[in-house]
From TrEMBL:
The lineage of its organism: Bacteria, Bacillati, Bacillota, Erysipelotrichia, Erysipelotrichales. It comes from Thomasclavelia ramosa. This is Phage tail protein. It comes from the Bacteria.
Amino acid sequence: MADGDFKAQVQVEPVYNYTVAIDTTPDTTATWSPLCAGIENFSESLNEQVQQFFFMCGKGFANNYVTGMAPSLTVTGRRVKGDAAQEYIFGAKYALMKKRETQLQISQLDATGANTQTITCNVTIQNIVEINGNATDPSQISFDLAFNGTPTLKSTPVGG
């Protein structure tokens, strides 16, 4: 192979290509505010409920069945005052019940680049940490967006 003829064997997708937003006006028409400014890391967890059975025909080896899940997205970064998404989240820090609930959207292009895949779900904002870090550092933040119910999965043609 000559120089310049390299072709990637896999498509690597940096996390910054995902668009993550929350609804900052959940009691009215949705206002989608991106989780972007100050945000350094997203970590998805499916929190699966797995039933494991050792049937005789398996000769000591198990069969596993995912029978449920409680997905969540853990978000970490730095506090940016004035950012709509962060103001909404940290404004609810000492609130309970409905005041901690909103919607989440996660979007990305599919492998072909022809469609946008979007996950939308009702979520509860939990485990909010606003004050964290050394005296001279911007505050390190974290919170979880825990899915409530089944997410909606949608594929839309780019530009459509």
